[in-house]
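Hi all, posting the design record for the shared folder.

TITLE: backbone redesign
STEP: 1 of 1
STRUCTURE INPUT:
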């Protein structure tokens, strides 16, 4: 089901850094230098609500990233209050991608590569590039407040897409998947991510906790119906995964 994409214009955005040329293997995506172009009619498996909640990154960076959790106010409450005060709805997917790039570039920054735990795992700069790039495109996914998944593209299947884009073997794909879904997020970095993801209107929810075989996750609104979200995940067809795996072949 892809009810709106046939009438949707191309999505095009200029980003601060060039994406890996392997993105050209994903159906509906084209990369040329720092220009990223997405054809919604080809890229999305489901594209029912092309609107998103965002907060301006400069405001998040200046006002929220420096905010501190207290005994009375959790970091999640700080983020929710910020979204309520500063969030706005946009129908411009290029704006979403631009905001998402800033958020993921902050979360997955290379200054952490010297930390012993990440060194022991073999985490390298190229892995963080993958997390930044795929995380940026994943921001176009959408989950409604009632838990319904309204927008889904190949980047949702995060590690499978990484295999196609970056030519990863199974071991490295699992490493990147583990970084995205848990290993990266020790408590301090989880706090950072919670605040940074306010720029995209929500928080990171790990679909892998509900659905096996590396089917990814999403930024979802605070208060989303997770029971319905899990039910929706169970409806993900294997044909979607197979379509991602077939890209570039």
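Okay, here is what came back for every position:
SEQUENCE:
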């Amino acid at each position: 089901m892809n009810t709106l994409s046939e009438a949707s214009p191309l999505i095009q955005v200029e980003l601060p850094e060039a994406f890996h040329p392997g993105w050209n293997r994903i159906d509906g995506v084209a990369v040329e230098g720092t220009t990223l172009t997405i054809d919604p009619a080809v890229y999305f498996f489901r594209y029912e609500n092309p609107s998103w909640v965002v907060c301006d990154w400069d405001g998040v960076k200046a006002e929220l990233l420096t905010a501190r959790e207290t005994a009375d106010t959790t970091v999640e409450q700080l983020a929710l209050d910020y979204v309520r005060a500063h969030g706005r709805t946009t129908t411009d997917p290029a704006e979403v991608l631009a905001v998402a790039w800033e958020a993921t570039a902050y979360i997955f920054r290379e200054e952490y590569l010297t930390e012993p735990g990440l060194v022991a795992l073999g985490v390298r700069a190229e892995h963080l590039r993958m997390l930044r790039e795929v995380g940026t495109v994943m921001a176009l996914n959408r989950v409604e407040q009632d838990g319904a998944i309204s927008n889904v593209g190949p980047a949702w299947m995060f590690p499978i897409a990484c295999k196609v884009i970056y030519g990863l073997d199974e071991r490295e794909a699992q490493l990147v998947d583990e970084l995205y879904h848990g290993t990266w997020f020790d408590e301090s970095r989880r706090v950072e991510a919670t605040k940074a993801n306010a720029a995209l209107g929500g928080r990171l929810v790990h679909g892998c906790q509900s659905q096996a075989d590396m089917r990814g996750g999403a930024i979802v609104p605070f208060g989303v119906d997770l029971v319905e979200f899990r039910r929706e995940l169970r409806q993900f067809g294997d044909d979607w995964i197979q379509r991602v795996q077939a890209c570039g072949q």
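COMMENT: The chain is about 45% helix and 15% strand.
Let me know if anyone wants the other runs.
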